Amino acid sequence: MKEKHIELNNIGFSYSRGNLIFDYVSLKLNKGESIAIIGGNGAGKTTLLMLLTGILFPQTGEISISNQPIKKENLQNILQQTGVIFQNPDDQLFMPTVFEELAFAPRNFKFKEAKVHAMVLRALARVEGLHLQDKLIYQLSGGEKRQVAIATALVMNPSILIMDEPSSGLDLAGRRRLIDLIKNFKQTKIIATHDLDMALEVCNRVIIIGKGKVIADGKSYDILTNEKLLKQNNLELPISVQNCHICGFEKK
Amino acid sequence: MSNFINSMTQLRTLDSLAKNKSFIHLLNPFTKLITTILVIYTIISFNKYEIAKQIPIFLYPLSIILISNIPIKTFFKRLLWIMPIVLVLLLILILDTYTQAKLFSFVISDILLLIISIIIKSILTTFAIMLLIATTEIERLAICFRKLYFPQILILQFLLTYRYFNLLIEEMRIVYAAHKLRSPKKSNIFKCFQGAILGQILVRSYMRAQNIYQAMRLRGFSGEFYTNKNFAFGLMDIMYLLFWSLFLFMIKYTDFMLAFVKALL
């Protein structure tokens, strides 16, 4: 039986009255799963990630990670278990150098300096970015910034990785590297994305959200090949399963 | 506008310069901070008639620039920023009574003396502060202030404001580029749009600052900055501090340096 890792129980959330983002949503996410959260613009994907990380708190219901409810009192404890990758790496990187950037979290959690050094190097090695450690952040290219942003999420060796549009702004080679990288992570992965091809390749479970509810929840292939369902939610079939409208090639 | 943004962007140069590995850069930040405070104290302690005595202090920035391999051009550009403030100060002080005074062997008016004195003082103090920033990483300076029992909230404000400034520059560049692309023949922004654009820049930078703060919180930030910087005093630190203390003492309380400058002139 699969071990429960994250549980959302009757979550209700709105930014303002009458604008309900989540209307009593319940979900169970299991350990080691790769879950894609998809939906049209404004469906609440980023809000869901913010709720999972304790940036926002639900107005009703409860979210728990490893049977520990997310509350202000235990937020530091929860944060050690989660690594977050923002949509825009520029919003995530604020220290002057790559090394300082990566050392920020372990130092905040009061690890000894020798350990901090080892953690930074290990995280950089995982994203093949050891050569970047002394670089200034503003000297990095878009792809390198993404690499460093992923390393900052990995540095604490979290059990959950939360990613918001990780493939946005990357060139094809960068996107491929990212997919290969994500596939190798053993953690529970929650990816909010519009890149349905990446979702199909990386995730074993897909959840469609919209209108404050979970619209569909199931195996990636089942959901991402359901053209009608996707269209109803302002989405379309991943390119890898589409037939070619130009040459008439049909996928079997 | 673009010139303004360019010069603001050059602020980052100070960040890059602080990463150099010269003898000055490797000194304890406390040593550099104390020396800077001593230099500024000595400069402001001179009255307006002691212009000649202030001249030898220029040896301080010059020697630091040479030793730490900092391009002197970077500093002169920034000196221009403070000039409007200096001019306003001068306008206020110029109401002083008219008398005559002596500088070396020249008889000059009191007002002129005041102008020269304020310009020298502002140049020297700006140089001292810029050299401190260009040779010391901002985080090391912040820790230094923290160890001197400055309130944590003030240091945090200082650090975040410094970073926010960079963010503001980035947003200004983006908005200015967007404007320029749609009005290629105009180098300046129309007055009627300036308010709206300024508002837009502030809102954008505020939102980005909010995101950055969230990113910091997610990584365990609770109001204290931690860094692994070695703050041990070495022989070089003591020698450096002693040398400049002696130098400033001689300038302030003896005429040895003044005689030296006179001999050069």
The portion of residues forming beta strands of chain B comes to: under 5%
What is the tally of beta strands of chain A?
A: 10
Percent helix range of chain A:
25-40%
Structural class of the secondary elements of chain B? Answer: mainly alpha
Count of extended strands of chain B: 2
Distance between the termini of chain A: 33 Å
Shape of chain B: globular
Largest interface comes to: A-B, 31 and 26 residues
Tally the helices of chain A: what do you get? 9
Order of helices and strands of chain B: HHHHHHEEHHHHHH
> How would you describe the oligomerization state of the chains in this entry?
heterodimer
Class per helix and strand makeup of chain A: alpha/beta
What is the overall pLDDT average of chain A?
Answer: 88
Beta-strand proportion of chain A: 25-35%
Characterize the overall form of chain A.
Answer: globular
